[in-house]
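Morning!

This is the sequence you dropped in the shared folder:
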Amino acid sequence: MSAAQLQAAGTAPTAPAASAEPGPSRLVRGRDVLASEWTKLRSLRSNRWTLAVAAVVTLALTAVVAQAFAASPDSGKHAAVMDRLATSFLAYAEYLVLPVTVLSVLVFTSEYGSGLIRTTFTAVPRRQAVLAAKVAVTGAAALIVGEILAFACFFLTQAILSGRHGGLSLAHPGALRAVLAAGFVLTACALTGVGAGAIIRHTAGAIAAAMTAVILLAVLCLALPAPWNLRLGRFTLPFAAYADVAAHPPGGLLSPWLSLLVLIAWPAAALFAAAVVLTRRDV
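The structure's back. Tokens below.
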């Protein structure tokens, strides 16, 4: 054999280079992050029990408020303050909005408290993607729960009021808008809570900040002399919510559509600040 043949025979054939498998698409990664956040939200038994208790208490007290309003001999004189439409959502505002806001704060602060946030950010290095997934899951859950209970509170209240003062139907001008707005109010408060939790990280401080945005600022505005109480208060969440759920809101408040922009602006500002803070600090 020639030297060339010997060299060729002793040379091992080179294996073809393995082609690199493409990673999962961005759509698949986004779906996985959403699935992870949904699993975290629904797997906590405390979340389900808190929502169940809040829903039962809200419906029970809605019936009490409606019955008290129906039994009042001069309730018709107070239509400018508490009309038949806004009466549907008085218990809703106190006994559903507040617990849902607190649960939304815990979406971030519970992970910071347990250290799970490090695992989350290791699995999903893009922190804004984590924020977006938590916002999507929490906002969707709050919107579904809010709309279901808003319709339930409306129909329950109007059924009670129909015996004496004449209940309203969804066909009444502004009724459907008010019910849909009530469900959105819960979503706005929940997302404000998510933003507060992401910014502050500590549960107590984040709950205090969220409660300040959701209710305390409006209470402080009520203590101001007229007309400053309405001039400043109409830019708070409770005043804007009342303008959207009342058939005859008092003068000085913004229109329902401008009030809706206020409801959007609060969670948008909180989540924008959260996105900035999450990308600028270590954990």
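Headline: The radius of gyration is 27 Å.

More detail when I'm at my desk.
O.
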